[in-house]
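From the shared-data thread, chain only:
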Amino acid sequence: MFSSLFTRRQWVLFSALLLFWLILMNSLATDVLITGVVVALLITFTCGNGLTFFTEFRWSREAVVAGFLYYGYFFSELVKSNIRLAQIVISPSLPINPGIVKIRTELTSQMGRLMLANSITMTPGTLTVELDGEWLYVHWVTVEHEDIESATRHLAAGFERYLKVIYG
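Structure, as tokens:
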């Protein structure tokens, strides 16, 4: 019955919402399960075409491996950028050179581009202020490269390497 009502995308959204609910509630009690199913169904039917992390995910061995490598890379960049930003903040001269740089992504999927923009934003010292097709506009606390190719290489290439495999 439900398979004829749901598209693949809606099944993914419903499953992700229900799983998230159950993790948050830390219970499989009947009332918790029923509430989770009802709310997940309501959200799925009202927002069924929205993106989830797995919507455009390429289900292959390479994509799963790239996903783990991506998170390893992301966390290493997170630590490095936190240290760099802390050094800037505690420096008496406060050596900043703020500005907005334009970078280009080779990612073609919406989720891949969204993940790239969020990865850049969650890395301290950078903030994606606009995503327009293949272009991202990033506020950078210490602009090191103003040309598109160099800024792209510095800010996005590491993330893109894995996101291309995961999302395309």
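The helical segments are 2-5, 8-25, 30-47, 61-90, 110-122, 148-155, 157-166.
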